[in-house]
Specification:
The chain has about 375 residues and is α+β, with helices and mostly antiparallel strands. It folds into 2 domains: about 230 residues, 3-Layer(aba) Sandwich (Rossmann fold), CATH 3.40.50; about 110 residues, Nucleic acid-binding proteins (OB fold (Dihydrolipoamide Acetyltransferase, E2P), Beta Barrel), CATH 2.40.50. Helix content is about 25%, strand content about 35%. The strands form 4 sheets. The protein has a 6-stranded mixed beta sheet, sandwiched between helices. It has a 5-stranded antiparallel beta sheet with strand order 13-12-11-14-20. Helix 2 packs across helix 4 and helix 2 packs parallel to helix 5. The mean pLDDT is about 95. Bound molecules: adenosine-5'-diphosphate and magnesium ion (MG). Adenosine-5'-diphosphate (ADP) binds next to strand 2 and helix 1.
């Protein structure tokens, strides 16, 4: 097992900078997620670690050793591709056993040991009943689990998983998350897991790197990213429903007061001098769970809005409100009975709001 380090790694394809000066420290045994939208460079980053691409700049270390010039075979990593391919002429059993078969001498495994290992991984992934079938006799989701089993059957230094659950239906995906996590905990193999699904990253990973346009914007635990997104992109990407981002002007700095599209907000925040000045543009980030809807005007509640959309989620609802010329979402208990078109009072928990510089997109406080 091993740690993985990237030092200022850049990879270009012609004029496209797919990975831009990425520096990461992934600890031995860690479950590390790379999260970002389609096209941000996640797969390229994983292929660089695997040795399927070579960096234009920077260094990649596995277990303290620079691997820049090492062949994929000599890096001792196992990768599941987004577009995995199974060997069509082999039964599921042989597909999964293949990585062990080709290394059985160096691993010191006999046929029985290989069989036991294949059956164990197949059982964890819920495909033990399919071992005699050919890939063409499987559904897409089953094929994906076989591909995953083929990577996990071995205990290399690092598992590299590229959106490995994307072909599964929603229910199976959530179930497989739990299996995958317990498998990783059991074997303690350092895992780099690529996904565009923030819920998946949040539920699986010890730490997450959020990427956009080839760059890593923030690395942190799920809590770090949720509670203190350092960048406005991270704030909008993490959490579901996503954070309300409201453009505002600073109208008073002593205790910060904001003028936001059609309403004013006294934040009560005392700023250090020099951080903001009158007329500065900022973005206010407000989590939907910090927007409270009141039916009557209680003390301290000054904002008035109208309910425009109600989306029941089960125990909670997402209520969209018009506030001035803005639209904001609130996450409410299902017990709150409101109707579309109803006028309500709104309390924003200002102590929990996030303030971003409109120019740089970086967190101000
Ligand atoms: N082999 C390649 N040749 C040219 N451009 C590529 C190649 N691989 C990836 N890219 C480009 O690099 C960027 C990042 O791609 P990728 O790493 O696949 O992103 P992701 O996995 O996050 O969707 C995209 O703009 C993509 O079009
Ligand atoms: Mg990809």
């Amino acid at each position: 097992m091993a740690d993985v380090k990237l030092r200022g790694v850049t990879k270009k394809f012609g004029r496209v900078v797919a990975v831009n000066r990425v520096t990461l420290d992934i600890s031995d045994g860690e479950f590390f997620a790379i999260l970002g939208p389609s096209g941000c460079g996640k797969t390229t980053l994983l292929r660089l670690i695997a040795g399927l691409e070579f960096p234009d700049e920077g260094e990649i270390l596995i277990g303290g050793r620079v691997v820049n010039n090492l062949h994929p075979r000599d890096r001792d990593v196992a990768m599941v591709f987004q577009n995995y391919a199974l060997y069509p002429h082999m039964r599921v059993f042989d597909n999964i056993a293949f990585p062990l078969m080709v290394r059985r001498r160096e691993l010191g495994l006999d046929k029985e040991a290989i069989r036991r290992r294949v059956v164990e991984v197949a059982r964890v992934l819920g495909i033990e009943g399919l071992l005699d079938r050919y890939p063409r006799e499987l559904s897409g989701g089953q094929q994906q689990r076989v591909a995953l089993a083929r990577a996990l059957v071995r205990e290399p230094k690092v598992w590299l998983l590229d959106e490995p659950l994307s072909n599964l239906d929603a229910k199976l995906r959530v179930q497989m998350r739990a299996e995958l996590k317990s498998l990783q905990r059991k074997f303690g193999v350092t895992t780099v897991y690529v996904t565009h699904d923030q819920g998946e990253a949040m539920s699986l990973a010890d730490r997450i790197a959020v990427m956009n346009e080839g760059r890593v914007l923030q690395v942190g635990t799920p809590d770090d990213l949720y509670l203190k997104p350092l960048d406005i992109f991270v704030a909008t990407f993490i959490g579901s429903p996503s954070t309300n981002i409201i453009p505002c002007n600073v109208v008073s700095v002593e205790t910060l007061e904001l003028e936001c599209a059609g309403f004013n907000l006294k934040t009560g925040i005392s700023l250090d001098p020099g951080i903001l000045k009158l007329g500065d543009k900022v973005y206010l980030g407000v989590r939907p769970e910090h927007v409270e809807i009141r039916k009557s005007q209680d003390e301290g509640v000054t904002l008035k809005g109208k309910v425009t959309i109600i989306e029941p989620l089960g125990s909670q609802s997402i209520v969209t409100l018009s506030l001035g010329s803005e639209s904001i979402r609130a996450l409410t208990s299902r017990d709150l009975k409101v109707d579309v078109g109803e006028d309500v009072y709104i309390r924003i928990d200002v102590s929990k709001t996030l303030l971003y510089d409109a120019k740089t997109g970086k967190l101000l406080l």
